[in-house]
Amino acid sequence: MNGQADGSARGDRPVVLVRTLDPAATLPAYARDGDAGADLACIEERTLAPGERALVRTGIAVAIPDGWVGLVHPRSGLAAKHGITIVNAPGTVDAGYRGEILVNLLNTDPRESFTITPGDRIAQLVLQEVARAHFTAADSLPESSRGETGHGSTGGFGTSAT
């Protein structure tokens, strides 16, 4: 077995143990040096009609080390060329999850169906260190320059900033 069994970091990189659940599964892999996301490939053929979504199998389970999270992001090429994205992007793979990574793909193209085949790269897995907070109830919160303004308050969504 390569890597450290406890999933601790090797140098500056965490070790992620990967279990293949299907003979067609492939390990996540970085396409180029310096890439943030490792490609996730599917193990099944699936056609997504316009507007359709589906959980697509990768055939792998991972052991993300404690203190890290796996974030499943869309692939920009699929989104730009075919309108294929991920419904809950980014999807979260918690350190304690040991089940199969399923990718919730969505075809946003209004006219064309899209077919994926086994081995197609359908998403990217980005690892990120996480902090765990201690949440404490409070009767009031400290003042801030933003205050309670939210959704569209900085001029987005067709509103004008004043």
From TrEMBL:
Residues 150-162 have a biased composition (Gly residues). Substrate binds at residues 75-77, 88, 92-94. Signal peptide: none annotated. Its EC number is 3.6.1.23. It holds the Pfam family dUTPase. Keywords: Hydrolase, Magnesium, Metal-binding, Nucleotide metabolism. GO terms for molecular function: dUTP diphosphatase activity; magnesium ion binding. SUPFAM superfamilies: dUTPase-like. The keyword Metal-binding applies. Pathway: Pyrimidine metabolism; dUMP biosynthesis; dUMP from dCTP (dUTP route): step 2/2. InterPro entries: dUTPase, dUTPase-like, dUTPase-like_sf, dUTPase_trimeric. Residues 25-155 form the dUTPase-like domain. Its cofactor is Mg(2+). Coiled coil: none annotated. Residues 138-162 are annotated as: Disordered. HAMAP family: dUTPase_bact. This enzyme is involved in nucleotide metabolism: it produces dUMP, the immediate precursor of thymidine nucleotides and it decreases the intracellular concentration of dUTP so that uracil cannot be incorporated into DNA. Belongs to the dUTPase family. NCBIfam families: dut, PRK00601.1. This is Deoxyuridine 5'-triphosphate nucleotidohydrolase.
